[in-house]
Amino acid sequence: MPRRRMHVTCAADDPLLACLCALRLRLGVPVGFPVTVLVEAERTARDPRLPERDETGVPFFTVDPPASADLDQAMHLERRPGGGYRVRYAIADMAAFVPPGGALDAEAHRRTQTLYFPDEKVPLHPPVLSEGAASLLPGQTAPALLWTLDLDTDGRTVSTGVRRALVRSRAKLDYAGVQQQIDSGAAEEPVALLKEIGLLRERLEVERGGISLNLPEQEIVTQDHSYALEFRAPYPVERWNAQISLLTGMAAAGLMVTAGTGILRTLPTAPGGAVARLRRTARALRIPWPHHVPYARVVRSLDPSNRRHAAFLQECTALLRGAGYSAFSGGHLPEPSVHAAVADVYTHCTAPLRRLVDRYTGELCLAAVEGREPPEWVRESLDVVPKEMAEGTRRANNVERQSVDTVEAALLAGRIGDVFDGFVVDVREREPDVGTVQLDEPAVVAPVDGDGSELPLGEALRVRLMLADPGAAKVRFAPA
To answer: Are 161 and 252 in contact (CB under 8 A)?
Structure first.
């Protein structure tokens, strides 16, 4: 599910980078890997467990940000002779590199996921694996879990298969380049079909009542010894690419549900009060939301390049609170078993280089397809992994929240006492004088303290900047 993505572009000696480094120390984020982990990673990078099946003849390609080297997924898309489509989706096979019970495995369970800061990331696995031997880099033969998903002419799944195979990506493509190829008509069919299949899957998402949040990225850039906040609206191809991942996650969940054992990514339906609060935020940001129009339709009408729409999309993530991982066995499904935003059973399985749970769901799906019991190391950790992922998700959320606060504090430093126009987009239920304000300019979302006066949720409010401390990752406003 979407997160608030923020990037920093500034000189190596910029004070903001020092603040972000201090933040990592304050949060106790791991610095490097233990020697035993690095030694084991080097060994398995040289000698991974390789599958017998060879699918290196399939011309896979990857679509990622230009600087990415931890490439979890590679795809090949084609039309089926009788109509419809075949999606081949290769997922990096981390189980081929991580011996159960070893130092690598223990460190992955400690970290649970890659952490993203505005200036750098803290990886789940050593780079010799995540950006090297296990990554689906172009021209490199690597072990993968190869999903084969056949779709009909409407984009509905008609058959699902997954098996281990050797694969080799032919090209590392980026979003801007793929979008340009598709828009100009220059894309070859396997790439051009990303739009065709993506649009079909989006229509099916609408049909089943699902919703994907199209969040923009934020970037801090230096300008004349100060900072400026810029938005980058995602390319349409990023939505289509995400639909392939969603398709696979739903197919994987279906396999596990049929087999009776698995780990699902679940999300309860948002309570009516949360939706009502979001309606007030929409009114504050002057976003039309007639009472007869469902939330999903409003979200699909938004333009993430519009600052007000971008702010509202960010507030929409409040409806995703409560997402978790739920293990089950013996056919006894958890409650809830559906992910409300996906509007179907769903699991995480397409990012094993960056997320611990995906290594486990991949093994569970292989066992389901082959009609056998999952490996013992998977069964033993079935109840443990969801708890570890819950703690890892809390840590990642804290990293994100404090990173954003640090960057926004740097943006506002030197403006203490200035007055800004904004909107109250959130108010604490038990402390109605404490909430969150979204500024008109710059696009900052920060705490506001009414000092005993109830804040007007969903209303315009002029606020005065009281605190902007990048070193402490704190920004605070008060009503002007």
So the answer is: no
